[in-house]
Each structure stands twice: as C-alpha cells, then as structure tokens.
Design brief:
Blueprint (H helix, E strand, L loop, with lengths): L21 H10 L7 E4 L3 H11 L4 E2 L5 E3 L12 E4 L15 E3 L1 H17 L2 E9 L7 E7 L2 H10 L5 H4 L6 E6 L16 E5 L4 E5 L5 H19 L2 E9 L5 E5 L6 H5 L5 E4 L2 E4 L4 E3 L3 E5 L9 H6 L5 E3 L2 E2 L6 E2 L10 E5 L11 E2 L3 E8 L9 E4 L1 H10 L1 E4 L11 E4 L12 H15 L2 E6 L16 H13 L7 E4 L4 E4 L12 H4 L3 H20 L8 H5 L9
Parallel strand pairs: 1-6, 3-17, 4-5, 4-9, 7-8, 8-10, 12-22, 22-26
Antiparallel strand pairs: 2-3, 6-7, 9-10, 11-12, 11-13, 11-14, 14-15, 15-21, 16-20, 17-20, 18-19, 23-26, 24-25, 27-28
Helix pairs in contact: 2-4, 9-10
The chain binds adenosine-5'-diphosphate (ADP) and phosphoenolpyruvate.
Adenosine-5'-diphosphate binds next to α7, β16 and α11.
Amino acid sequence: MAAVNRTSLHPYGVVSGREHTEIEEELHDKANIDYDRVAIIQHPSVPALYEDALVYETGSAITSSGALTAYSGAKTGRSPSDKRIVEDPESKDEIWWGPVNKPMSPEVWRINRERAIDYLNTRNRIYVIDGFAGWDERYRIKVRVVCARAYHALFMRNMLIRPKPEELEHFVPDYTIYNAGSFPANRYTTGMTSSTSVAINFAEKEMVILGTEYAGEMKKGIFTVLFYEMPVKHNVLTLHSSANEGKNGDVTVFFGLSGTGKTTLSADPNRSLIGDDEHCWTDTGVFNIEGGCYAKCVGLSAEKEPDIYNAIRFGSVLENVVFNPETREVDYEDTTLTENTRCAYPIEYIPNVKIPCMSDNHPSNLILLTCDASGILPPVSKLTSETVSYHFISGYTSKMAGTEQGVTEPTATFSACFGQPFLALHPMRYAKMLAEKIKEHNANAWLINTGWTGQSQKSGGKRCPLKYTRAILDAIHSGELANVEYENYPIFNLAIPKSCPNVPEQILNPKTAWKEGEAAYNQQAIALAQKFQENFKKYQDGVTKEVIAAGPQIPVSL
Ligand SMILES: Nc1ncnc2c1ncn2[C@@H]1O[C@H](COP(=O)(O)OP(=O)(O)O)[C@@H](O)[C@H]1O
Ligand SMILES: C=C(OP(=O)(O)O)C(=O)O
C-alpha cells in the first residue's frame, strides 16, 4: 500500500490499510491499541532505545561510561500503598489480603486499564519488549512489556531474559504489562487513594501501571506474579534472594529486603553469579527469574564494588543519578534526586556470571541478610533449623531510604520472608516450603547483619564495613566459620562465633562492643526482643513450639 501525504517532517506519510505484524494485531485485538496511528516499535535495539530516550525524554543523557541515564520523575521509589490485586474467583482464596495486597474490583481494573491504553494511544510511538521470566524452561513465563518510554523499554530489556531471535518470532505472552506511568490514575475512581496505581490481574494475566515512572515497579510486579504462580501451580518456592555458586558447585542464596546487600554480596570474584534479586527453588535446584541486575548506586565506587561499577556501561540504564554537566561523570555520592539511585544492566555484564542462570544443586548455605539499624544484632550468627524458620518468618530488618516512597531514613521493620511487599500468599506458605527444603537438603543457615552493629544508627554508629561482611562470607564458604568456637548471644538465642578470619574479634559480639555501656545495651536489646515477640504473635499458631522458643527470650533477671 503506497504512502500519501509525505512531507519532509513526516517522510513516511500516511499508509492506510497496510498489513499489520502479529504484535500489532495482538495489541489491537487485546487492548484496542490504534495500530494505524501509533508507531509500535517492536523489540528495538539498544542504540535505537538510546536515541529515542535522548530525543524524547527530558532528563536523559549518556554518561561518561556509556550508560543511558534517565529520570523517573516525582516517584523515585516503589509505591506500596498504591499496589492492588484484582479480585477473581480463582485466586481470591489464595491471596494474602491485607496491607500488602489490597483488592481492586474487576470494574475498577477495566477503568484503569482503559485509561492506560487511552494514554498509550495518544503517543506517537510505543515500545514492545518481549522476554522470559525464569531461566528454568519448565517454569519460565513469557512476558510482554508495552510502554511509552524508551527508558522503560531498555530497563525491561535488561531485566527480563532476552529471547533468541527465533524465540521472538510468534512470541505469545503469558503476561502483559501496560506501563502508562507518565499518566496519572483518576483519583476519583473508586478505591484510588492517589494518582498512582500499580495493579496486577492474575486472571487476565496483565499488569497496569499509572502515575509512577519508577522502573522497579515492573520488575517487582513480575516478581509478585511468580510469588503467586510458582507455589500455587508448580509447588516451587519463590525467594527474594540473590544467589551464587562456588567452584565446586555449592550454591549460596542471600535473602534480604532492598538495600541489605543481595546484589553487592552476590557479586563475588570467587564465585559465579546466578542472580541478584529473584529466584525460585525447585525440586532440582535454583533458578534466577531475571536476565539482569538492578543495583543500588548510592556511594558506589570502583574500589569497593568493582564488578558493579564496571557493569555500568553502554546498554545499562542509570536511574535518577546526578552527573557532571561537562564531563557526564556520575557522582554516586550525590543524592539530590533520591537516595535510591539505581542501575539496571544485563546480567552478563558481571564478569563471572553463570549462564544459564541456574544450578542443578540445592543451596548449601542460606544467608538471611538483615540491616539492623538498632545495632543489636551480631554481624553473623549460625542458625538452627528452628532459628532460621523464626527469623525467616519475622524478617526483621530496616527499610532503606528511598526504596519506598516516603521512607527517608533506615526504618526498622518486620518484612516477612524478607520480601513482604512482594508476597502474594500468606508468609507461612513460603515458610513451610522453606523449612521442608532445608530439612530435605541439609542446608546451613546464617543470619548476617549488614547494618549497624555495636551502636545504633540514630546514635551515630556505622554500618558493618563491607570488607568484614565479605570476610565473614569467605569464612562461611571456606568452611572455616563452621569450625570455630561459638557462644550464646543472650536474649536473642543466637550462636555467635568467637572468632572469624580477617574480622576483628571485638565486633563479633555487639554486647561487648557496645559503645554506650551495659545498661544502655540491655535496655535497647530488651526493646528489640519485645518487638520481635510482639510481631511473632500473629504467626505463632502456625509454627511448632520449638520455633517460638527459638526467638528472643527476655530473662526475668533483666
Ligand atoms: N556490610 C555491608 N554489606 C553489604 N552492603 C553494604 C554493607 N555496608 C554498606 N553496604 C551498602 O549497602 C547497599 C546494598 O545494596 P544492594 O546490594 O543493592 O542491596 P539489595 O540488592 O539487597 O537491594 C550498597 O550500597 C552497599 O554498598
Ligand atoms: C527494587 C527493589 O528492591 P531490591 O533492591 O531488592 O531490588 C524494591 O524494593 O523496589
């Protein structure tokens, strides 16, 4: 069909009634996308996405290391209070309804979805990225992202597993994300408490984003889908964890809420990276869900974290960082736009990555990463099968500044399974599966405090130096730490090592390292123990008395 009305501004003119691609047909049929007016850019290359971001998106630039940097606008962290799950008869009785998963009616879903599509139809160009979630072909889901911003397209191109060219032909998605984040939700629609809406529909297998351009919503949305689909449909356990593998094939998984060190600690020159954030534990081993990493960049340096620093190059997407206007060098100390500065890069940008990102071995070490702002928890403790259940269910840690909207300083929280914002089912469902797997595969478990220790954050303490946390991990992996002498850490019922290679002995026990004297220590330790006990009340009916007894106990003498 010949084009008409060609001008120098619109050299391709108007082509009416042309044939459409499979993707165009699908978007037109399923979502009413106006395929004759909107240019649907399918599977764009990295340079093409750079060009579009630079031309059309204010705040974009190429940094001196070659990364694309983008600005996400007012929202620079997740918006948990605006997350909704659409009620449907099949998933209704499975979902853990409450503060994390708030219901949205199918009617409101349709209104929001229509609003997102109407917005996408006003654009001159929209992007389609197809990719897989899950490296294990038995369980992977096919994801399509339809979005208005080139930066979002490049982000998901990095974060999903990139299909081979032949796999992109006739790609029929299982789940589709419509990201219209530059356009607000209507605040007067029933159930909307702000102009942001992040909604997942398990029945329709779709996700709709309005009113937030923070790219992390997309990857964490798919994560919630897997927190639902994997246990419910396949009896596979979904984990908010990173994972790596030693030279002998031994696997370590690191659980932890955002900012606790999953990405940093799993990038280890002596071990191959399996993934930095989202995994599943199957009957044969573990697999990564993603094709990329999403690292926190605040304070990043080539000396402390060379692998991550060097991964920030052509093809990577930096988010909300500040750069020098002349040199385009990024200042990773600058938190003017947010504390939650980020970079998303394809996983193969980390030198010693394991491709495919999965292992046929079951984890031999489970690390529960907590970032304790109170300074009470020891840098490392060895857990029994009961203490690991207790701490996994409790999920005591801090929310780090910036990751969620409104959190401006480390804030103590109990985040069940160290990933409460992403859980679809009740935490006990995951906890039971984990306990069974630990028992079956005899995994060792450790609690590592990457946060403050020996003094609280509020009273001016410091986070445990990264080099010591790395030394602790080295000693776990070499087997040395399992063989040293242990002592009981009072109140908390934890076994702490008396020594650890390359770590000063005095920091291993926060009680003896405490800077403000024993009375102050006791007061704060008791306060924290009480918080644990209070939080655990809601889970105690679902666990054995041994698990309850594994938690903090306050001696009557105190
Ligand atoms: N002892 C420590 N262990 C791990 N990370 C630390 C430590 N001290 C400070 N950090 C910093 O904390 C942040 C951890 O972020 P990241 O690894 O991206 O967390 P996650 O992947 O769990 O969201 C990084 O900025 C890292 O430099
Ligand atoms: C991206 C997030 O976390 P993480 O650092 O665990 O990837 C998040 O919590 O939004």
